[in-house]
Known about the structure:
With 301 residues, the chain is an alpha/beta fold. It has a single domain (3-299), classed as Histone deacetylase domain (Arginase, Chain A), CATH 3.40.800.20. 32% of the residues lie in helices and 15% in strands. Helix 8 (255-269) links the parallel strand 9 (233-238) and strand 10 (274-278). It is globular. The termini are close together. The protein binds zinc ion.
Amino acid sequence: MVGYLYDPIFTLHETGNHIENKNRVMFINDMIRSDFSYYPIEVSSYDKRDLYRIHDDSYVDWVEEGYENGVRMILNSDTILSPKSYEVALTAATCTKNVIDLFKRKEINTAFLNLRPPGHHAERMMGQGFCIFNNVAMMAKYAQDAGYKKVMIIDFDVHHGNGTQDIFYKDDTVFYFSTHERNNYPYFTGSEEERGEGRGLGFNLNKPYEDNIEDEEFLALYEDLPKDFDFDIVLVSAGYDLMKDEAISSANITFAGLERLVRKIVDFSKDKPLAFLLEGGYNLDSLVKSAEITFGVLSER
Ligand SMILES: [Zn+2]
């Protein structure tokens, strides 16, 4: 059975009528509760010092104290801070530990994490792009603590996960693979030349694509998933803003294309633990349908 993680705390990061708002996770939750059976995963938050392993201490402390000090936004990056945002973002990143614990106990082998704020743009020094702390990076660290030493991260959000790349750029124990639109946010990262550094050289693979991409060309990029990285777990930054009805990109991925993508990822992951973490996706109808397709395929695993 698929493990499903959600908690109303994720609605307390208040962003008003910003496209990254609480309706995203609420609508997905309503659909999953009515359409699927699942293994419910408890949401709890852990020590903020865990975040120091992926973010600079001073940045974490600055977010924690920010709202009291009048900070309402992270830089000029369109990332809102509300009174509860720190607590919610801390929870979103650290509750991933509960999923790892269930994998370790063999209670589940597949999970879908319906959480926000998203995380993949949050770099070591600073959040941005609607992201405060990097959820998938935190989950990778917890996975390694539990003995899943080699972590494969696949990021299909239409935007490059500059934050995840940044955090693991010199690391040969985490392989980061990203497909994303070339001429889109965050603009200055995500080229094919960025292959990692030092020990991490060869463990970062970007597959940028041009505007208006369609299913066949997009799916072909996944033929380049690494064949010789002997991973212990697969974590997916599941950003649904690559779908054709999304205003935030020009990508034209159909629901049939998405289903094929999820099947490819399931096949690639073999029998290893597999978790999908929500990143982008802002057209609510498209987002809910996309989550439904994902959950359906994962339920067959
Ligand atoms: Zn995105």
